[in-house]
Amino acid sequence: KLAALRLFIDISNLRPLLQEQELDPRGNLSEKELDEALLSRNILPEYVFDFLEKNETLAAKLQYFSVLLAQFYREEAKKHTGFLAKLFDFEREWRLVVLAIRAKAMGRDIVKELQFEDPLDPFVTQILVQKDAAQYEPPAEYKELKELIQSCGKDPLEQNKVIFSYRFHKIGELSSATQFSMDWILMYLAQLTIVEHWNELDKARGKMILDTFKTS
């Protein structure tokens, strides 16, 4: 179960690996082990290798990387029960909600943004039926998230902060397990990762990256 929780980091690490950048050390695999897993086609789920084969060029792999992350949540939620299944469903759903909110705010085509999602999935369907609406109205359980994001205006740093805070508290509500049970430990580690990511938020570094994009 711990390996399943950290698998998302391993898969996320494929992007910096492809870009020859520093990896997140919190995954199951080191950089060398991840390289070996790709060469020997083992350890990682089969859908990872299918994605890499389908998108042959580096540009395609990076452009459609979010497709792989979305598939992770869909596939892993089916494999597990209890807290992990709830966590993977929640992590997928809040990302879809944020995608829809931001797409509407930026005037993006929601149908295009969701082109790699299953249109028959109920959660995806409730977004697609609002494709022509002026604003996206999420399900009742995610209205708080929309209000929090809107309260930040257009400040991406503040938006990330409220999303981290929202996730931290909601993950704490996903399990009623007793302290030091396996589900409680998984919940603690999931929350700890969010706290660590929060502490990594760096406004100056973010501005430097943004300025690099503007001048490249």
Describe the structure.
By secondary structure, the chain is mostly helical. The protein has helices at 2-12, 14-18, 31-40, 46-54, 58-63, 65-79, 82-106, 110-113, 122-128, 143-151, 156-172, 182-200, 203-215. The chain is globular. The N and C termini lie far apart (42 Å). The mean pLDDT is 89.
| Backbone structural class | mainly alpha
Which sheet architecture does the biggest sheet show?
Answer: none
**Runs with pLDDT <50, length 5+?**
none
Strand residue percentage: under 5%
Kindly state the percentage of residues in helix: 55-70%
String of helices and strands = HHHHHHHHHHHHH
Mean pLDDT: 89
Query: How many angstroms does the end-to-end distance come to?
Result: 42 Å
Number of strands: 0
What characteristics describe this protein?
0% strand, 216 residues, mainly alpha
List the helices and strands and how they pair.
Blueprint: H1 2-12, H2 14-18, H3 31-40, H4 46-54, H5 58-63, H6 65-79, H7 82-106, H8 110-113, H9 122-128, H10 143-151, H11 156-172, H12 182-200, H13 203-215
Helix pairs in contact: 1-6, 6-7, 10-11, 11-12
What's the short story on this structure?
By secondary structure, the protein is mostly helical.
